[in-house]
Amino acid sequence: MPQNEAESGVTETIGPDEEFDPIGTLTLIGIYFVILVLAWVYIYYIEFLGRDLVVVG
Amino acid sequence: MSDAIEAEQSFVDKFPQEARVVRAALLSSFFALTLGAVFGIVQTLHRTDVARIIPSTDYYTVLTAHGVFMVISFTIFFLVGLFTWAVTRSLDRPLIDIRITWTWYAIMAVGMTMTGVSILAGFFPALDMSADVLFTFYAPLQAHPMFYAGLAVFIVGSWIAGADWFRTFLAWKRDHPDERIPLQTFMVLTTMAMWYIASSAVAASVLIFLLPWSLGFIDQVNPTLTRTLFWFFGHPVVYFWLMPAYLLWYTVLPKIAGGRLFSDPLARVVFVLFLLLSTPVGIHHQYLDPGIAEGFKFISMTNTMFLLLPSLLTAFTVVASVEYGARQRGGTGLLGWLTDLPWRDPAFTGMMLAGLMFAAGGFSGMVNAGMNINYMIHNTIWVPGHFHLTVGTAVALTFMAATYWIWPQISNKPIYSRSIGLFQVVVWFIGMALMSNAMHAQGIMGVPRRTAEPEYSGFEYATMFGGFEELNVQIAIGGTLLFVSTVLFIGNLVLTMGNPKVSGLAESLPPALSGPNDAPKVLDSLRLWVGIALTLVVLAYALPLAAIINRGGLLGPGVGTYPAWIAPTLDALAAAVTPLVGAIGKVAASLVGVIL
Amino acid sequence: MHIHAYEKLWLAASILLILLLIGSVTYGAVGPGVAMVTDSEQPIDAQALDEDDRFSEPRVEQVGDNEYAAYVVAYQFGFEPTPIVVPENSTVTFYITSRDVIHGFEVAGTNANTMVVPGEVSQITVETDDRQEYGLICNEYCGAGHHVMEGKVNVVSQAEFDDRNDGGDDA
Questions:
Q1: DSSP SS3 for B29
Q2: Which residue in A23, B180, B272, C168 has the most C-beta neighbors within 10 A?
Q3: Confidence of residue C165 (pLDDT cuts 50, 70, 90)
């Protein structure tokens, strides 16, 4: 299993936005967010509310 | 394998006694997984009518065993092993007194054996002992007293484990008064604080009501009260399963990816949020209970929706940490970096697939939490579909993946076959995708959970995302793949244990990109967070519990006692009973022989 | 405490999502008026159901203009009455209790679903549409015969409903 060079007891902390912007993460999580919203709207408003015998009291 | 300096000591070199405990706990965990898997395949083939080799009435014994062995024994033994490793490693010192450590391990083993025997005895009518009450053991269904006693003993063992780690931490703190709590130890302490709060209610329910009732000291119990005390524990227990997985995703996965944890402070915030919010939400498992007012259910719903937040934050932080690793390895592009990751490493791929599946499980969890939409899926097979994604994959697959990484360090033995490991984790993912997807689809059709025969004589299910039989086939295939995957995992581990010891297997964990000193000091003040957690629990539960006791009395309105082992006359079920008990009898006998 | 700008963005999106979920559930309660099962009925003695005039004779009866009440008893392992016959396009309130252990009451494929707890009475009101036969499932494990515990909920024409009730034998 390959080793990475970053592990050598380094203790300095690198501020993330000086060197690293997780743009890939933002993209992936943005896609996930859209899927969640669409799926929720479908399952709540169409599937659930559209069904027979909704309990109203 | 590692090309680190030869002189570098592995965990077992530095802490041989602790490593022994970790191995013992993990082996107990995998023994439970094995039993649970055997019962799982029996269930999956029975329910889907592929192979009904036991009478349907015995299905509930199988189901109780599968549930208890998987979500109490497998998960919690793994947790105590992992946490022992994490505390020792992050504090870089041995536990206070290894005899205490072995004591709590033994107590847990004894407790689980008691409960396990009481469940498995249900296969042998001559023994007059059983516990066909399922993992949730709702009264007035009653199990043999040893079932309840064993659970109480097991939980007490886990409490002592927590005390062991707290004491070790306090000793470290005396020697390091100005340092921040190391992240892994912080995660262990917050998880255990949550557990003490959560398990108190079910321990009370068992010790004050259910155990005396099963021994005949009291005549009846209040079903709504004991249910509510169960779910007081029953929701936070899922975080007791998840938080070890999160510990691995936050502190180990970035290293395996070649990166570093994106943010230590945010990891602390997430664990504090779980400590605060895991328990005051249990009533969302009781949305359709008649004895609980709608207002309390609404409060539980809003609390539960906010409990999504720490998991959503985790998704970002963990993926960002992996992305950082990929870019360190030379990855470029918006998404192209995904290919620059160690996908051949079963530990890495297993955890990534587990996380991916968890994202899907989060969605079905949102539906479960949505109070009124619960009408659509409550007690249908949608619910097992959901939790096989979460505990069944996010947790279980992460645990298996982590084992590939951790076992060499606690034993000095390399994994027998990394290729089989990689194959195994992928098969798990595929099997679970098939099975869980079909379960969700059937759930929407109204197919119930927890039943030996989901087909009924009086009606047919509507066809929705596929027909009932078609989806049954998918469940059966998916479940079979999961069983195969489990066999491969266990086999690989057993063969690993037979390997000769080598050196050079040490792995260190890199510091976070944004380290603990960036975290506000207040995050480390456990007393504050425990205080707030207790306040929230009191706010969420004092009134509902008072109302329930007021309505039905401490020991219930008139209800009977229904031992779940005296099978009622089954005249009407004659057609459902098959005579092939011999086969399962043999299997169960050998299992009982192993335990006893 | 330093939080990366993207993570702050995600935090905001997450909170919005949570509010969307809470908002949807609230809308469901307020707009279409979906009501949760609640503790509106008094506790009852499960071992003395014969003394309760609702459950000593489980039945469906008219209680108002196009309003009906269905008194249902769940037991190991069935439902009384069976089938539960109600008229189309009416408002039906189910009152369900258990004689023994916890059961479930699920009208398969619909939103009518509730726990049935001995000592408690579950009350749910639904509006029936056109004629249809629904399966009724016990969806809470209740013992060795759980898998054969089923019933029917039949939504029939007004005429057929009146016939059944006037002609003598209830199901």
A1: helix
A2: B272
A3: confident
Q: Is B450 a catalytic residue?
A: yes
Q: Which domain holds residue B18?
A: 7-564
Residue count of chain A:
57
Cβ of C46 within 8 Å of Cβ of B552? The answer is: no
∠B139-B566-B199 over CA atoms, to 5°? 30
Nearest CA-CA distance, residue B24 and chain C, Å: 35
Active site residue B169: no
B440 is an active site residue: no
Catalytic residue among B30, B60, B449, B489: B449
How far is it, in rounded angstroms, from Cα B11 to Cα C165? 78
Interface check C6 vs B, CB under 8 A = yes
The 10 Å CB-count burial string (b at 16+, else e) for B413-439 is bbbbbbebbbbbbbbbbebbbbbbbbb
With tokens 């506790």, the residue in question is: C43
- ipTM for the whole complex: 0.95
Q: How many separate domains does chain B show?
A: 1
Q: Which among B140, B313, B449 is the nearest to C118, CB-wise?
A: B140
A21 close contact with C: CB closer than 8 A: yes
Provide the CATH number for the domain around residue B226: 1.20.210.10
Q: Which residues of B touch C29 (CB under 8 A)?
A: 298, 371-372
Q: What is the mean pLDDT of each run of 10 residues along chain A (57 residues)?
A: 42 51 96 97 96 91
Instruction: Give the integer Cα–Cα distance in Å for C16 and C22.
Output: 10
Chain A residues in contact with B324 (beta carbon < 8 A) = 20, 22
DSSP per residue, C27-39: HHHHSS------S
Asked if B322 and B251 count as a contact pair (C-beta separation under 8 A), the reply is: no
Measure CB to CB from residue A53 to each of C20, C28, C107 and give the nearest one.
C107
Residue B62 identity? V
Is the separation of the CB atoms in B567 and C77 below 8 Å?
A: no
Q: Hey, what are B179's tokens?
A: 């340092």
Antiparallel, parallel or unpaired: β C78-80 and C103-107: unpaired
Q: Concatenated DSSP letters for B414-427? A: --S-HHHHHHHHHH
Q: What is chain B's mean pLDDT, rounded? A: 93
> Do B5 and B13 form a contact (C-beta atoms < 8 A)?
no
How many separate helices (H) and strands (E) can be counted in chain B?
Answer: 22, 2
pLDDT tens by residue, B197-230: 999 999 999 999 999 999 999 999 999 999 999 9
Q: Which of B83, B232, B239, B541 is an active site residue? A: B239
Within 8 A of A9 by CB-CB distance, chain B residues are 508
Tell me the shortest Cα–Cα distance from A38 to chain B, in angstroms: 11
Q: Which residue is listed with tokens 């033995």? A: B413
